[in-house]
Amino acid sequence: MGELRLMKGNEVIAEAAIRCGCDGYFGYPITPQSEIMETLMTLRPWEDSGMVVLQAESEIASIHMVYGAAGAGKRVMTSSSSPGISLMAEGISYMAGAELPCVIVNVQRGGPGLGTIQPSQADYNQATKGGGHGDYSLFVLAPASVQEMHDFVILGFEMAFKYRNPVMILADGVIGQLMEKVELIDHRPRWTNEQILEISGEWATYGKSQNRKKHIITSLEMDSNTMEQNNLRLQAKYERMKEVEVRYEAIECDDADYILVAFGSAARICQKTVQIARQKGVKVGLIRPITLFPFPEKIIAQYASKVKGFLSVEFNAGQMVNDIRLAVNGNTKVAYFGRMGGIVPTPDEVEIALHQRFKN
Amino acid sequence: MSVLTERINQIIKPENLVYAKTPLLNDDAMHYCPGCSHGVVHRLIAEVIEEMGIQEQTIGVSPVGCAVFAYNYIDIDWAEAAHGRAPAVATGIKRVMPEKYVFSYQGDGDLAAIGTAETLHAINRGENIVMIFINNAIYGMTGGQMAPTTLIGQITATTPFGRNADLNGYPLKITELIAQLPGAAYVTRQSVQTPAAVRKAKKAIRKAFEIQAKKIGTAFVEVVSTCSSGWKLTPVASNKWMEDNMFPQYPLGDLKDSGRADADLYRIKG
Ligand SMILES: Cc1ncc(C[n+]2csc(CCOP(=O)(O)OP(=O)(O)O)c2C)c(N)n1
Ligand code: SF4
Ligand SMILES: [Mg+2]
Question: CB within 8 A of B266, min separation 6: which ones?
Answer without folding.
Answer: B182
